[in-house]
TrEMBL record:
Coiled coil regions in record: none
Keyword hit for Signal: yes
Keyword rRNA-binding in record: no
Membrane-spanning intervals of the chain: none
InterPro entries: ABC_trans_aux
Entry keywords, A to Z: Signal
Family annotation (SUPFAM superfamilies): XCC0632-like
Position of the signal peptide: 1-21
Name the record gives this protein: Putative lipid asymmetry ABC transporter MlaABCDEF component MlaB
One Pfam family in the UniProt entry: ABC_trans_aux
Highest rank taxon of the organism: Bacteria
Residue ranges of domain ABC-type transport auxiliary lipoprotein component in the record: 52-186
Amino acid sequence: MKTLYFVLTALLFSACSVVNPTQTLPSMKYFSINLQNIQINTSIYKDASIIVALPKSLDYSNNIFYKKDEIIYTYAYHFWKENPNLMIKNFLEFNLQNLKIFKAVLNQDSLAKVDFILESKVNILEQEFLDRTHSKAKFAINLTLVNAKDKNIVASQYFYYEKKLNNTKPDLLIKAYNDIFKQFGEEFSTWMIKNLE
């Protein structure tokens, strides 16, 4: 019995040494969406304030999602730098401040009186694989501009974007998202101006 115990213990320790101690796991990478100044000329100015509400419908994690064969997965070593809900909220606030059509773009927990609320629901923020190397970066969001005084909807719009990728490198996925968000920023700014004229 002692011999069997000794052999099992020796086998256990020798199995542990099979893994090369210099072998390391891939390093984790964190990505974010670039905030780019969009130049849109407008003469509109509202003596009003606006709050951007935290987007709904996204997982409250930093995971980057992809879909393959109708199943949702997450990348093991690649993450968003911050929660995508906060990232999109910051993106919307940045674009509203850049437009300079409001007296103030307030934080969600501000105690100041607010005139408008921008609500959003993110429907899609994922990469969809078509085969082993081809995929699409996808983003869809529904925005609703609400008059805070009478609680009436001023405008509502669904935005959808996708960009095809011919490579599986995460850096190219993030570049595609930056292109998508640049286009979304331009269309969002135009939509806001149109609905406040």
